[in-house]
Amino acid sequence: PRLLDLGCGQAEWLLRALAAHPTATADGVDLSGPALALARASAEARGLAGRLALHHRPAAEHTAPYPYDLVLSVGATHAFGGLQGTLDAAARHLAPGGYLLVGEGYWEHPPAPAAVEVMGELADLPGTLDLVTRAGWTPVYGHLSTREELDDYEWSWSGSLAAWALDHPEHPDHAEALAVAAEHRTEWLTTYRPTWGFATLLLRR
Q: pTM of the full predicted structure?
C-alpha cells in the first residue's frame, strides 16, 4: 500500500504505519522544517527511512504521479482552508476504494472570541459530520479524543519541538522552533483548551 500524509508534522502516523506494514511506502508533506527534521531522524532511528519520502512544501501544493491507498490529514485542515477543502484535496489523491483518515477540531461548548481567533470557525460535532456526509463521504469509524489525550498531545507537540531546539543550538531553525513551541503552548492554555474537541474520522466514498 501507498500512504500520503498531508501536513505530516513529525510523521508519527506514517512511521507507525510503516512499522506495522513492511510492504508499505509513504509520502509526508509539511511546511515545518523543524518537524520534518524530527521525522527524518526518527525514520532513520527506526530503520524506516528507505520507505518514507518527506517533502518540505505546502500540503495543498503536493502532486504525485500515482494515487494513494490511504490519505491522512490529521490536524492540518487549515492547510486547505478548512475541512471542505481537505476533503476535496484528499479525493484528488485517493485511489478507488481507498480510505481517508481526517482529524478535525470541533467546539464541545460555545467558544470565547479569542478561541475562535486562534482556531478559526469550527462547527460542533453534529455539524462536522453533516459537512462530511454532504461532501459525499461515509464515516466507517471515528474516535473522539479525551481531554487527557488532548492534553498529552499538546504537551508532547510543544515539548518535543522545544527539546529538539535545545539539543541543536547551532541549527538555523533553533530560534524559530523555540518560538513556535512557546507560542503554541500559550495559545492552547489560555484560549481553546476548555472548549475544543477533536474528532478523527475514517472515511470512504
A: 0.85
